[in-house]
Amino acid sequence: MRALKIYAALFAQMLKVRLAYRGDFLADLFATALGGLSSLFFVLLFFVPVDSLAGWKRDEVLLIAGLSSMSYGLFATVSWNLFEFGDRYIIEGRFDRVLLRPISTFAQILCDQFRIPVLAETVIGAGVVATAMHRLGIGFGALEWLFVAVTVACGALLYVFVFTILASVSFHFEDRVGVAPPVFNVIPFGRWPQEIFPWPIRTLLRWVIPFGFVAYYPSTALLGRGSLKGMAALSPLVTLAFGVLAALCWRLGVRKYESTGS
Amino acid sequence: MNPVRALHLPAYAGFFVGQFHKMLAYRTRYVTGIISYLVYVTTYYFLWKAVFSRRAPDDAIAGFSGAQMATYVAIGWIARSFYFNNVDRELAEQVQNGSIAVALSRPVSLQGTIVASTLGEGLFRFLFFTLPISVVIFLLFPVAPPASALHAAAFLLSNVLALAILTQLNFLVGLCAFPLKNIDGVMRAKHYLIELLSGLLIPVAMFPGWLQSLSAWLPFQAISYLPSSLWLGHARAGAEWLGGDATLIGRVLLVQAAWVAALAALGAFCWGLAARRLSVQGG
Q1: Chain A to chain B, count of Cβ pairs less than 8 Å apart?
Q2: Is B183 exposed, middle or buried (0-12, 13-18, 19+ CB in 10 A)?
Q3: Nearest C-alpha of chain A: how many angstroms from B182?
Q4: Is residue B189 part of a domain?
Q5: What pTM does this model have?
Q6: B162 lies in some domain
Q7: What is the ipTM of this complex?
């Protein structure tokens, strides 16, 4: 209860900082929406000269991309501190301050730079998913909505856990850039039908950096296509497994932490 | 004695050398960077491979065969590893933390120092980033050699101009930090717009007609699409107004140079406006 109150206070403080420049906030929101739209616009452009990709039609690929955008938008609200963790907290020594507060270190890192405008990407993704589902004749029953909601939540958490594992590497190797950028660049792999990739990449995206579970496997389930539609059921389990792994890595890192002494 | 001073190089050379040294200090970034570029090329290579594998070998899309598309993807990303820079982010940080005041007090122009440092960074990237990436990608993917020695030389020069165009665009985006305090969204939107409209992800020749016409009036295709067309020796290059093969090289370089000049002038104008209303707190 006490911890919740502290979170609420931290969150309110952060909101105040962000809303201090209201014009900025709106410009940021507009620009983020533009960015989110243009990544989906690529799928539209791609299907101008091309009519199908490994048997997937435009609207089916849009469904994958839309689901991926929804998860990514949620993840991006908290992602910054994970990317900059080594730099901001370990090298610049901010982690001392985090340790002093009587609440979870991990929750503090996630909430410290909460970004609201990136949620525009989730909203745009939702619009694309709804449009694609409508055009593909997929029903809009409670079951479908629940499925999309669980998928998006699992996808966002999966991103958070993967990048937490990578951020916790910073406890052991001090480096400003860290090891996250190449994995961040793997995210677009997950926006396309996995059949187009050779088996080593497919396996990598299934079990090692499991971004295939964010949008691709759930889409095959929604569309009821292919032999892999059952994989979507594994999505919450994979997310849970990576959550456990992330928690272990984080704890191990915090125990290892020695201040910069500054 | 400072070697730069001993050689009596002009002041701008100091920024060139300085940036080169600054880049050397962040070596791990280049190892992860090489992996990142491998990931980019892999994604888009297989995307296009899936498209072309279902077509007849001579069934080109907008003048691109499957083999040419593989080369286009590889060359486009290799070139990006050279011309990419963070001028917008760096300028915005200077505005936000007030160190821009130091830049104002220097007896040389800010735009000039930025151009000098990005050229220094470009040389560094070319030697320690673009070359190793090229080796890895040439070994792993089927990349065709340039159309001719002349095309290869033009391709290199064209990418220096692409670097100059992107630098000036990034300078303009960085200047947004004067009216806005936070330009993350603007930078993100710019990033996606350039990726798409430069032709890096999909050649401009494959755009729908209206977007091709629009692109002809925008600087973005001069960053990736036009230089890569030189490597392929693509006479069509999706821009018929550029003319036939003989004059293609000259015209591409001319169009790029014109964009550098136009954007630099616009940057100078906007910088003049921004510097006038600058207030550095406690600076």
Answers
A1: 102
A2: buried
A3: 6
A4: yes
A5: 0.87
A6: yes
A7: 0.86
